[in-house]
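User: Is it possible to get a 3D structure for a protein together with its bound compound? The compound here is pyridoxal-5'-phosphate. I've pasted both below.
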Amino acid sequence: MEKKFHPGTLCVQAGWQPKKGEPRVLPIYQSTTFKYDNSEQMARLFDLKDEGYFYTRLQNPTNDAVAAKIAALEGGVAAMLTASGQAASFYAVFNICEAGDHFISSNTIYGGTYNLFGVTMKKMGITCTFVDPDATDEEIEAAFRPNTKCFFGETISNPGGHVFDIERFARMAHKHGVPLIVDNTFATPIHCRPFEWGADIVTHSTTKYMDGHACAVGGCIVDSGRFDWMAHADKFPGLCAPDESYHGLAYAKAFGPKAYITKATAQLMRDLGSIQSPENAFLLNLGLESLHLRMRQHVANAQQVAEYLQSDPRVAWISYAGLPNDKYHALAQKYLPQGGCGVIAFGLKGSREEAIRFMDHLKMIAIVTHVADARTCVLHPASHTHRQLSDEQLREAGVAPDLIRLSVGIEDVEDILADIRQALDSM
Ligand SMILES: *Cc1c(COP(=O)(O)O)cnc(C)c1O
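Assistant: Yes, that's possible. Here is the predicted structure of the complex:
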């Protein structure tokens, strides 16, 4: 069904397709294991000769239905759910890179991903070069090495709100024979489908807008099926050379456009096991059913809040790509014509303590580590998530010391504005 429907219809209808007499609503397959009639049937599954379920660490029907919905929304050929967005980012890169390899990432990305790439993966022998996406093509291309295996960026960066020029980075990545991976968490496929701009693989923290209710941590990886691994077989032995742990099967030959997700499932999930629980996948699916409606409201509310903040003399600066004078407005018009997301970054005049005073005066808007759910919330990265960093280190990580991250929810916007106004007034 999937491709011919519009995104809002896919949100509601894609994924679970019940047959005669089956439940209308996606069931939670709360089972670790699956039954077969004879030994031969099971053996064929283990050889990847037949498709089917045998153990939930690798695959589960609830998860697969939700992954299929996200694949349809992104316009990809296959997808897998992971236990968290962090697991999705790690698997997306680790499915291509091994010890001794190198990859490139935009430096304006989520702090957790920055740490994963710069510190933890380095300990595994995989090195990452961070580049400023605003640098020239020449400067960025200088980061490619013979052992570079992929390029990574975020459609809308968390927390800075920078918009990633997907088409430009896809061109550079492909020129050097490597895929572009885009973390599409903040835009969601409702507002941007990176495959339409040349990205090869998309990742999500489904914890954010996709779930949308802040009740289930999760992640997802989607493959466009378009990157030609065999055309660069020497670069990608993990996909193109025989896998000893599957009797010498070569994924790119055996599975064509589904090679990447099949390898991630059969190899990485088998060995590392960060599956999303089927119950969380069920909750994620409920969230996805209203994603298109919620994104509309997040953006409409955030636009009004951003315009208000920009006009208030107590606000020193604001970053929201929906504002006509924003540095990323032109890119937003190209990649996010229906709006970006509900997250605004701004700073107040005065010292960085002003941010704390402002937040402590908010009444309805809560201080939480979370972002991108139905309830408006706020965070001061320098005092919370990035607490360990000096002002200088903060700037290097692209986080201004006075940056307040306001995640605008889907309440009535008048109440959000009133709370912000009263907090500023009572400081
Ligand atoms: C939150 C987030 C992640 C990490 O996801 P978790 O589900 O918290 O593991 C990755 N990328 C972006 C853009 C995020 O906002």
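The chain has 17 helices and twelve strands. The chain has a mean pLDDT of 95.
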